[in-house]
Amino acid sequence: MRIHLIRHSEAVDRVPSMPDAARYLNARGRVSFREMARRFRDAGGDPTRILTSPFVRAVQTAEILSETLRYEGEVVLDPRLSPGFDVVKLNAVLDGFPGDKEIAFVGHEPDLGDILARLLSLPQGYAMRKGAIAALDLPIGGDPLRARLVWLLTGDRRIEDPAMLVR
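Above: the chain's sequence. Below: its structure in token form.
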């Protein structure tokens, strides 16, 4: 199974009058993620399911991805992808979709970077940039907490070697 870990794109700044869950993508975040979604499509990304945190900025990122891919399914809000998402919750979500070949998860930092570091057995954490997308292959019948990096799209880079993720 292939999974994609997608950090939401750039959002408006935090302000006391707005709950964190209501923060939405700013103009630069929308434009830059459209480009990232095209790169994702061109890299062969073709999820059978798109799951997202219910936070507005993550939902908007997932919707841009869906539109760019001409994805025919529904973008599914899953509260488990809210801040606090971890490998245990990832495995619980995956248990619900045993037949899916490719699932995209749209969420937040530091959660996604922590999951990426854990699945790749990186010696230290990894911080995913806003709008970054990681493609990972999970083993079938193997250790569910181990994965192989297919690629990571970040900024204008494509990284295929996990050693490049170590600071």
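The first strand starts at residue 2 and ends at 7.
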